[in-house]
């Protein structure tokens, strides 16, 4: 897959294009003809990428969180979950492929896994509705959480959505109520639940499967009650002011951990999770293993109490 560069990565893209040109010239002029130049350029690219990713603002992080080559839910399942069996349908209306879930083993521990999937190309994006869940997606998530509690299975949820589907069909079938039921079920679970914000966690579409005992966020992911574009459109009457809205909304991992909205930041590879998906997935797995080990000994009552206290503490001095 061709590399996808963000706006602030243009100088890096230009240098990497020069490296590609020199590599092709080297093939025609003889091996080793431009090795020194290529090595020097690659070293410069590495320094530029490190510098660029060490001074990111909220809008740049939003762009990274939405990067099309960032690992998605199916990638985390493939990298972390063994013997995964997908469970489909909400037993009420339909199967929403924007939210996927099922049973599997995480490093030997049986778990229930739930997550939003955006898709990676045109066909899969349409299939998964770009990660915008309909009411039946949240009702499926509730059904899977019910099963998890029945069989005493920890729940791992992966959040990556621009928001719930805003169409007429979703409103007709009660999307607000479905999100509320999902949030309520997360809060009342008697088994451990850990949520991971892997990309963008926006609006009720995120919180419907994210009200967990522990909320983990990737370094360049974002989490908010509304997208920057939505905020700019509603409050500033101008969607084009999304960049300023992002900076004012306190949506980055560093902001959120200070506000007690999230509990842990998982460091991403230099260049973002899309630069080395395998490493990013492994780091998420290590964080999940540590968090799960601390929650597994707790009783159902203790888990519910811890979860309630966690959310009551948000916004308090």
What's the arrangement of secondary structure elements?
Blueprint: H1 10-29, H2 35-53, H3 58-65, H4 73-80, E1 81-86, E2 99-106, E3 109-116, H5 122-127, H6 135-150, E4 155-161, H7 168-172, H8 175-188, E5 193-202, H9 203-207, E6 214-218, E7 222-224, H10 228-235, H11 242-248, H12 253-258, E8 264-266, H13 277-295, H14 300-312
Parallel strand pairs: 3-4, 4-5, 5-6, 5-7, 6-8
Antiparallel strand pairs: 1-2, 2-3
Helix pairs in contact: 1-2, 4-13, 6-8, 10-11
Walk me through the structure:
The protein is α/β, with parallel strands linked by helices and 317 residues long. Helix content is 49%, strand content 16%. The chain has 14 helices and eight strands. Strands 1, 2, 3, 4, 5, 6, 7 and 8 form an eight-stranded mixed β-sheet that branches. Helix 1 (10-29) packs antiparallel against helix 2. It is globular and about 70 Å long.
């Amino acid at each position: 897959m061709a590399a996808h560069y963000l706006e602030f990565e243009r100088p890096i893209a230009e240098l990497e294009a020069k490296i590609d040109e020199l590599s092709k010239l080297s093939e025609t002029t003889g091996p080793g003809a431009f090795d020194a130049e290529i090595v020097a350029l690659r070293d410069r690219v590495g320094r530029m990428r490190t510098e660029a990713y060490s001074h990111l603002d909220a809008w740049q992080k939003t762009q990274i969180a939405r990067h099309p080559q960032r690992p998605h839910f199916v990638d985390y399942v493939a990298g972390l979950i063994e013997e995964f069996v997908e469970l489909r349908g909400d037993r009420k209306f339909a199967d929403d492929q924007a939210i996927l879930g099922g049973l599997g083993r995480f490093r030997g521990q049986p778990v229930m896994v739930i997550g939003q999937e955006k898709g990676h190309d045109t066909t899969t994006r349409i299939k998964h509705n770009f990660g915008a869940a309909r009411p039946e997606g949240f009702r499926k998530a509730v059904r899977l959480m019910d099963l998890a509690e029945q069989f005493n299975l920890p729940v791992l949820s992966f959040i990556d959505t621009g928001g719930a589907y805003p169409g007429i069909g979703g409103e007709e079938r009660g999307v607000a109520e479905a999100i509320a039921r999902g949030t309520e079920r997360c809060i009342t679970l008697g088994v451990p639940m850990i949520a991971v914000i892997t990309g963008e966690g926006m609006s009720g579409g995120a919180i419907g499967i994210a009200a967990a005992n522990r909320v983990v966020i990737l370094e360049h992911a974002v989490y908010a009650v509304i997208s920057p574009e939505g905020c700019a459109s509603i409050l500033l009457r101008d969607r084009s002011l999304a960049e300023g809205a992002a900076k004012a909304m306190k949506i980055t991992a560093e902001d959120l951990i200070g506000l007690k909205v999230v509990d842990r930041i998982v460091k991403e590879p230099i260049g973002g999770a899309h630069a080395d998906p395998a490493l990013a997935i492994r780091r998420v797995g290590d964080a999940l293993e540590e968090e799960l080990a601390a929650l597994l000994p707790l009783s159902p009552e203790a888990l519910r109490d811890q979860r309630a206290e966690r959310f009551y503490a948000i916004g308090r001095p």
